[in-house]
Design brief:
binds magnesium ion; 11 strands; 24% strand; binds adenosine-5'-diphosphate; four-stranded mixed sheet; 9 helices
Length: 305
Amino acid sequence: MGREFSIIERYFKRLTQDRVEAGGLADDAAILSVPEGEELVVSSDTLNAGVHFPIDAAAGDIAHRALRVNLSDLAAMGAQPLAYQLNIAFPEPPEEVWLEEFTQSLLADQIAFDIFCSGGDTTRTQGPLSLSITVMGTVPKGKAIRRSGAQAGDVIMVTGCIGDAYLALSHSDEYFQARFYTPSPRLDLCRPMRRHAHAAIDISDGLIADIEHICEASGLQARINLSNIPLSDPARAVIGRGEVDVMDLLSGGDDYELVLAVPEAAVDYFSDAHTIGYFTQGHGVILSGEDGEDVKLKKSGWQHF
Ligand code: ADP
Ligand code: MG
């Protein structure tokens, strides 16, 4: 048996958790069914070593981040996890300890977020390690949350804290590193979102850039109050020491928190989230400071090119 097949058999097969849909990875493809009255929500995210995480990152950290950033896309759509495909390209044959840590970490998150691996692809590359996950989830027909659904007057809410993952680039503190490698996909909000949110996006490019995406899709302007943006105590401490400008956190990205457009009457359904502003007629994002004056935005977010 070739090494590729023994890796699949010994390590990746366990990720199927013996689900019949995956057929023990003995077939060319998985067979999935979508419950009556539901539709499939599909999204892919690729992580390349050296671009999306440091080349020397631990196998477990890479695994957590790869699955969680994908689950965050499902959360943003209001979808419940179903299954995922794992596509991985190795620069050289992986060590057994690497595969062990990688798959155990994936399994732990599979159990935490109620999803299983339905298959994937294993290849060799001349470049650094590359990992691509395609995640699938379900929503009742017509109930997926879109970026385009925001309405003038909707409140802009954000979950969690902003900027911690960005600070992991410059600060090796365990707290910031954990926020980078193990973001918390907000799948817990799926039900209230489907009932009450008009639009949603997960923050991958940067808070401002991702709110801009809602603005464009919904044809609206966002007005945000800088003093309402939730920051963690460790992030405030770093800003307080003058090591980073708060504006950099707002365009830093990698938060994998959700931005929601919520009608004012439904704000109480999202008691864990923070109100940071509102949508109105117009376009673009307008940020105002403590003094009520508009703050100039240098850049809104991360771009690959
Ligand atoms: P093909 O010959 O079409 O490339 P493979 O031999 O690569 O198919 O795959 C055999 C089985 O193993 C398939 O069911 C596939 O989904 C599964 N598989 C391959 N790589 C992975 C992986 N990295 N993770 C999970 N399943 C995988
Ligand atoms: Mg293949």
